[in-house]
């Protein structure tokens, strides 16, 4: 494509929120990236433009038929003031995978990656400095054809917005309590669970509400066919350490191929810690727990990086996993290593980070 | 609630499209209905206001997490100039069912029904006169909280827009050719297939594209667990007439409870034609076909009312059903009866229609 990204400047600058008031995805920076699609011109007019509301006809397809996909990644500020992205090319590739499943025209990954870099460069003053904070990057595509016929939209907008964020969970490495959901289903092979389309998240809200009502933080989804194999958590993949070996559900077409998940697997291999991807039933996990072999459970995702699981509730069984989070867990070691790479504090043997300058 | 609907007038009137240029959901009338939700005021400020674009922050939740639901119904103009709605209270009740599953606050059904009536009354000149045309009514709710956290939105907009439409399918009673999908899955029990949420339609696009590529008009979905039980068509429920008896898949939690489906069942009972709701496998249908007992197949839905199916393609099997659509089919008889009720040409023993005045 090789299109030049236009920059439309603004002098209006918002006040930056205090570090302790960041939250997640509540504040947005001064600029955003926008690119349009129509059938004549394909993806065209890439531009960085002042952050502003969208003006959309009430009939645009995203409101009615949910043709919408997104990504999530972060920019980090290092101690010495450099700006790093973590494996952004993976997010852009996954955006295209989502495009493909959701009948959205493919994007030029290079131009979107370039857009992310330029936008973050312009907005680098928005990257907070404090421990656990970062600049969250949200690329997304919405269907904008004004039409109520059910068919792939003939018009789209790709946008990138930026939000300075604190940690997603208020207490970063505090173990979370997870409810194993056996009534609601998130996704099924042949469906859209393996891509980041908006409807997957809407479909998960009811179960999340139920879990919170019962006093849990998050939901662990089981497969939708046999209702016994482990899939993933709300917006995290999940790992189990059993008898010294680490196992995570294999990518089966209904769970998201998380980039943190992939990084954790690579890191464990690098450390020569046994790790495998497999079909795991909740029964097996419970058996391991009953035998005293379930050593650790943790979730992985961009928002929290690593999130230790302290308790799994499955029907009448309560599995208490964290016997005191003494800081010597594998979860903590992985968290330390990945965040150190992200923050430029440790070497990056995998070439995961990209510096923006 | 008992809220008064405010009317915000406009003198700007669009030109009405010619009957042969209507299409489906391409043209919209001069007014729309809007009502807002926030946590302090609940659903508030119901108003009929000039049709106009929405101004929405790029972070509003509908773009990212697909919390959006909709309905579809029609207003018809009778020969003697009256305006009729067909079972609108059913659509409003189903909207609330969708709210419930998608964690959207319940609406006051009376006020929404009232809004639909008032809006159609104001826009009655937009109802086209020609055979097969009507005014399509699209109520919908979108999540409008500007936030990237995954949780039920704390702000919503409920809107109703109106579109004068021709028949959804260009040739009304021309039998459609249907591809039985055995790779992609639309919905599964425990999921959201039984409500009208936007993501269900986005998830169906890929299979629809595939069917069209293979030369078929629509997809027939099989269940997502065993991949053998019949569910429904893209936006229609499905009926089979086998050996004089009519059967349609029973509502199992993954298919939509169509209002046309319900009306057809009531009508058949009224006519003393045997009809049942049951779990039906595609195998059974094929066996009936091979034995020469599959007499008719038809879809039911608001858009086309009744749509005869001429061919079912399942793996290597082609079932040719319509042995010449000679006008003596049950599908045609049902179509005639329901459209006659809708257009005020026949008596309405079921009290299905509501006159607007
Ligand atoms: C459903 C789901 N699973 C897993 C993940 C973790 O993926 P990643 O590590 O790429 O952030 C996410 C978040 O992106 C998600 O939304
Ligand atoms: C998935 C689906 N199934 C069935 C139907 C038919 O329902 P109704 O008869 O209420 O229009 C529709 C259309 O509303 C639909 O979207």
Automatic annotation (TrEMBL), chains A, B:
Organism listed in the record = Heyndrickxia ginsengihumi
Which EC class heads this enzyme's classification? transferase
Its lineage opens with: Bacteria, Bacillati, Bacillota, Bacilli, Bacillales
Keywords attached to this entry: Amino-acid biosynthesis, Aminotransferase, Branched-chain amino acid biosynthesis, Pyridoxal phosphate, Transferase
**Amino-acid biosynthesis recorded as keyword:** yes
**EC number(s) per entry:** 2.6.1.42
**Catalysed reaction equations from the record:** L-isoleucine + 2-oxoglutarate = (S)-3-methyl-2-oxopentanoate + L-glutamate; L-leucine + 2-oxoglutarate = 4-methyl-2-oxopentanoate + L-glutamate; L-valine + 2-oxoglutarate = 3-methyl-2-oxobutanoate + L-glutamate
Protein's UniProt name: Branched-chain-amino-acid aminotransferase
A GO MF term? branched-chain-amino-acid transaminase activity
């Amino acid at each position: 494509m090789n299109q030049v990204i236009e920059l439309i400047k603004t002098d209006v600058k918002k006040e930056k929120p205090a570090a302790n008031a960041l939250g997640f995805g509540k504040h947005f920076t001064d600029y955003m990236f926008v690119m349009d699609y129509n059938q004549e011109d394909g993806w065209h007019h890439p531009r960085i433009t002042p952050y502003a509301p969208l003006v959309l006809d009430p009939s645009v397809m995203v409101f009615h038929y949910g043709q919408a996909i997104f990504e999530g990644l972060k920019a980090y500020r290092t101690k010495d003031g450099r700006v790093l992205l973590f494996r952004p090319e993976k997010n852009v590739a996954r955006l295209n995978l989502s495009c493909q499943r959701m009948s959205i025209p493919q994007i030029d990954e290079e131009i979107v990656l370039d857009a992310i870099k330029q936008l973050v460069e312009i907005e680098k003053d928005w990257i907070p400095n404090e421990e656990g904070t970062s600049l969250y990057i949200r690329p997304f595509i919405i269907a904008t054809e004004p039409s109520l016929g059910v068919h792939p939209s003939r018009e789209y907008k790709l946008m990138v917005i930026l939000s300075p964020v604190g940690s997603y969970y208020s207490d970063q490495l505090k173990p979370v309590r997870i409810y194993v959901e056996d009534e609601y289903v998130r996704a099924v092979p042949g469906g859209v669970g393996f891509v980041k389309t908006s409807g997957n998240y809407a479909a998960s809200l009811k179960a999340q509400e139920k879990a919170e009502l019962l006093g849990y933080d998050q939901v662990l989804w089981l497969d939708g066919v046999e209702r016994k194999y482990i899939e993933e958590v709300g917006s995290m993949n999940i790992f189990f350490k059993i008898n010294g070996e680490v196992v995570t559900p294999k990518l089966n077409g209904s769970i998201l191929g998380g980039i943190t998940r992939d990084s954790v697997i690579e890191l464990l291999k690098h450390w020569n810690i046994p790790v495998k991807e497999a079909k795991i039933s909740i029964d097996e996990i419970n058996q391991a727990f009953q035998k005293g072999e379930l050593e650790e459970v943790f979730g992985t995702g961009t928002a929290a990086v690593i999130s230790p699981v302290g308790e799994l509730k499955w029907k009448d069984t309560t599995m208490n996993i964290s016997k005191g989070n003494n800081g010597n867990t594998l979860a903590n070691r992985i968290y330390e290593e990945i965040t150190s790479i992200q923050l430029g504090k440790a070497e990056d043997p995998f070439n995961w980070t990209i510096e923006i300058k």
